User: Fold these one by one.
Assistant:
Number 1:
Amino acid sequence: MSLPTTRRIVTGHDNNGKAIITSDAVLTPANPLDPEGNPPTGIIPGFTNLYKTDGIPAKAQTPFVDVHGKKIGLVDQSGVYCRIVDFPATGDASDNVNIMHRTQSVDFGVVLKGSIKLILDDEVETIMNEGDVCVQRATIHVSFYSHLLATFTFDGPVQ
């Protein structure tokens, strides 16, 4: 399976406070279940972990820590994740990956390429196209998509 790469550029400051590029790398999607960060196979999605904040509010003066290719949770109460998620094309076929689920977070999903079919627990379907944004507020859902930028902000269990 060949998933698109992403160039990630991270800025920071030198010891004199001057803006600098601290990282400029081309990232290949990794298997989120693999602690070694190997590429996904079969129906496993590819995660390109772009950035994780060190706490909330974000601390822009801390050193950059690269989380790409690391086995990390979908959400984390110690910070905000920003990642690109790539699912292999399965159509509407059941694949045991695109399953109805709830994340304990507020997620912002931006369709980068193609379209997304978003289905909520009442089975209402909404089609999202390139440039569309979904603010997912801890609702039960399933999404069929190919290339999506998402941030995950921990919120805790739904009351």
Number 2:
Amino acid sequence: KLAGESTYFLPFNRGTRDGGAGNDQPENGYGTEYLWQEILEPEALLKILARYMHLHVQHEEDDLGRIKKKESLIFPRYHQWNV
């Protein structure tokens, strides 16, 4: 959900060989090519949609007794891919 300053994004990076954040830059190609070579392949993407994505729904009551629904879409991180 895009919500201005409240928007946050959890990265889908592989991490570096030495355990750092981000991606290693390969000798040839792009540092993010794993995304379309591994993740956005039709079979892989369908697997993510069917098995790993989760819509978390919370119902909370405010001070006036009104029920508010809060939804969060949970998408796996790259390191959870082979778990």
